[in-house]
Amino acid sequence: MSIRLRLTLWYSGLLTLVLVCFGIILYTFVYQSLMSEVKKQLVNISRSVEFYPTRFDFRVGRVSSAFDPNTFYLQLVNYTRNNNGVITQISPNMFANDERDELTFPYPSYSEVKSRFVMREIRGMSFLIYENPLVAEETGALVGLLQIGAFIGREEAMLAQLRNILWLAGGFGLAAAFALGMFLSRKALSPINRVMEAAMQIQHGSDLSVRIPREKPNDEIGRLTDTLNGMLSRIEKAYKELEETNAAQRRFVSDASHELRTPLTTIRGNIDLLHKIWVAGDGTGQDQDPESGMAPEDKLKLSREAIQDIADEARRMSALVNDLLSLARADAGYQMPLEPLELKPVAEEAARRASFLPRQAEWAVGPLDDLDGVWVNGNRDYLLQLLFILIENGFKYTPQGEVRLYAVRDRDRIGLVVSDTGIGIHPEDLPHIFERFYRADRSRGERSGTGLGLSIAKWIADMHGGVLKVKSEPGKGSMFSLWLPIRESEPASGGGDMPPNP
Are the C-beta atoms of residues 461 and 386 closer than 8 Å to each other? Predict the structure, then answer.
């Protein structure tokens, strides 16, 4: 059963209950109003009747409401002779006009007499009878019963007509309400149908940009539509991010394979060369090899060159594997251990080691005065690695000029800056320099590197709660700055190897 039909049935059932209750209340009110008016008239007539006990007779006096002899009937019952009662007097209008048959009311026995209203059906006609006991003034004993009846055929006809009207109006109203309920429920649930259509369209297709149109955003359906549209937007965003991540992973694997293939090719080529030199001949190396035609001195020289190339490429592969391992840790959510660390010794150690790196530019250090007494939460090894990445990049892209390491303080942050006067970075390349394996096309192939260093540096900065910024201008040089939050207080006893405070 559909929601539309269930809603309509619930609504129709509730409406039926309301109509039934309304009809009962209305019918009861009309019935009570009609009967109370007849009862009031019967009581007034009873008060206007004069009773003569000596001859058991009565006479109707002046009645406040008009006495209709064709509507109201009187009957007097005598209990002095018989406890079962004997009809002593009846009004003339209780005789049929044609047959003169006596029309009498049923009356109770002596022990059941009391003042009351009773409904009686006589000869197919309905009467409302008011029974008024008659008591002797001298003894207070019951002597008779005065019955005043009213024909209520017109009231019953009116009530029957009212019942028919209520049934017809209720049935017609219920049918109209059911049809209107079906129409309104269809209109009210149309946004849900649109939601289903959009969901099916998304399910059977790949277009996550589909949105559900909304008409009235302030009602429940409108809020549901807004919620679903927001959910679809987040799903679309997550899907695009997943696609971008997959694409980045594919590029990562492709670039890693390319970077690994180059040294492997070099190593394999040199191994093949050594094989030809030493295995293809007699292996003694004493006389000239008839196949290669090379003297022993030439063999040794080529062998040394090949071994040097193999060692260089092995070191390159080792560095690349270490970089890939660091990035794999970053992707796995690795949290590096941090401890209270005095920053100046770290910078001085990086400056000392950098002085031994091969370079063409001048190496300058300072000023580092802003590092005095500065402590951070950091990891010494990873911070040294980050500074070395920045310094090596400065040497790599500065064929002449200067590379400098200095410190700058800005309130509660400390900055370590590596600046150079090298070739700089073009503006279109700046947004991508922290991407993995990204290298500007202008420098690719001219200078060695894998394009992973700055990605690792960015990850290390993030793990320290810091920010890595870059400013560069082509032909004038670049400036990389690492900003770290300063600890509010240094440890109780100095030393960079202290464990973190609890």
Answer: yes
How far apart are the C-alpha atoms of 191 and 216, rounded to whole Å? 10
CA distance 460 to 463: 5
Side-chain half-sphere of 467: how many Cα atoms within 13 Å? Answer: 8
The one-character DSSP state at 35 is H
Q: How far is CA 345 from CA 68, 99, 310, 380, 405, in A?
A: 125, 138, 36, 10, 13
The angle formed by the CA atoms of residues 188, 190 and 196, to the nearest 5 degrees, is: 135
pTM of the model: 0.47
Calculate mean pLDDT across residues 99-122: 82
Q: Where are the domains of the chain?
A: 3-160, 205-334, 336-485
Please give the pLDDT value at position 478.
92
pLDDT at site 287: 46
CATH number for the segment(s) 336-485? 3.30.565.10
Residue range 55-88, pLDDT digits in tens: 677 676 654 444 455 678 888 888 887 888 888 8
The architecture of the domain spanning 205-334 is Orthogonal Bundle (1.10)
Residue 398: CB partners within 8 Å, gap ≥ 6?
359, 360, 361, 420, 421, 422, 423, 477
The arrangement of secondary structure in 3-160, i.e. its CATH architecture, is 2-Layer Sandwich (3.30)
CA dihedral 87, 92, 95, 100 (to 10 degrees): 100
Say what the pLDDT of residue 441 is.
47
